[in-house]
Amino acid sequence: VVEHGAEGVGLYRTEFLYMNRSSLPTEDEQYSAYRAVIENALPGNATIRTLDLGGDKLADFITVESEENPVMGLRAVRFCLTHPEIFRVQARALLRASIHGQLRVMVPLISRLDEIRAMKAIFRQCRNELAAEGVAMANNVPFGIMIEVPSAALTAQHLAREVDFFSIGTNDLIQYTLAVDRGNPHVARLYAPLHPAMLSLISIVCGAARSTGVDVAMCGEMAGDPLCLPIVLGLGLKNLSMNATSIPLVKAMVRSLSIEACEKLVNEILEMNTAESIEDCVRWRLREMLVGTPCEPMLQALFEDPSVAIDAEDLL
Ligand code: PEP
Ligand code: MG
Predict the structure, then answer these.
(1) In sequence order, what are the beta bridge partners of 290?
(2) Which of 48, 57, 72, 148 is the best mutation target for the ligand 1 pocket, counting ligand atoms within 8 Å of the beta carbon and taking the most?
(3) Rounded to two decimals, what is the model's pTM?
(4) 169 Cβ inside 6 Å of ligand 1
(5) Which of 26, 39, 50, 86 has the most crowded Cβ, counting Cβ within 10 A?
(6) Which tens digit of pLDDT belongs to each residue from 77-96?
(7) What's the pLDDT tens digit per position in 7-40?
(8) Which H or E run includes 216?
C-alpha cells in the first residue's frame, strides 16, 4: 500500500482475522495485527473497521440462526451489538494498539443513531477497564461510521453530531439503494455507481459533512474507479480509499483534473435522469479534460479498449 503511494490506510477489514478458522482470534492476536497496520501506516492514519461479519462474510465458529435474507440480517454492527462479548475483545485490542500511531476506528452498516451510541458506550467501558489495568492508550481515537445504507445517508446531518468522520461505503450503498445484490451476476448490469439516486445520496452526505465540520471519505470500489473520479471530486470528496493497485492511476488523474471543471461537470449531470446518460456524458467530458495532460496516453485503455494494460509502475 505504501509503495503504491498511499498516505495511510482508509479501510482495514478486520473480519478476515475471524474467517477460515475454528476459534475466535484472541485479544493479543488482534492487538498484534492492528499494531502492525497502525505502525506501517505512519505518518498516515490507519482506519480500522470493526467487525463486519454476517451477510456474505461468515465465520465457521459463529452459528447464526439461518436467515432468509442475511444481507439485511444480523450483520456488521448489528452482530457486534448482539454479541458484545465477542466485540469487546476487539474493542480492547484496538484501544491497546492505539498507542502505536494514528488509529481511527470505523463502524460498518450504521442505519440508526442508537447503534452509534451503543458502540461508543462499549468503547468507553473498555477504555475505563484498560485504564484501571494501567494500559496506555491514545487519548483520542477518532470514531467514524460507514455510510452504506440509505437511511444513514439521508440522516447524515443527525449522525454527524455523534461522530468524527464518515466514510461512504459505495459497494453496499449501491446495493441497498438500487436493490441490486452486489454479488449476483444476473443483475450486475443494474449495479450503477453513477445512478442519479447514488449521486443525490453522496451529495447529501457531503453537504452534511461540510455543514457540521465532520471529515468525509469514500471507500468501496467507486472511490478507485477512473470513470467516477471527476464526479467524486466534483461532489467535494478529497479523501479516497482504494485497492493499492488503483492508487497510481487515480493519483495521476487527480493531478491532471481541475476541481472547477469537475464541479461544472457535476452541475451538468445533476440535471440528467439515467445512469447511462450520466456515464456517456462523463466519458465524453473526461476525455476532453485529459487531452494534453500526462494522462492522455491512458485514454485508450480507459475508454476504448479495456484490454490495453495501464502500467502502474510508470505512474508511481
Ligand atoms: C463498502 O460496502 O463499500 C465497503 C467498503 O465495505 P465492504 O466492501 O467490505 O462491504
Ligand atoms: Mg460494506
Answers:
(1) none
(2) 148
(3) 0.95
(4) yes
(5) 50
(6) 999 999 999 999 999 999 99
(7) 999 999 999 999 988 899 999 999 999 999 999 9
(8) strand 215-219
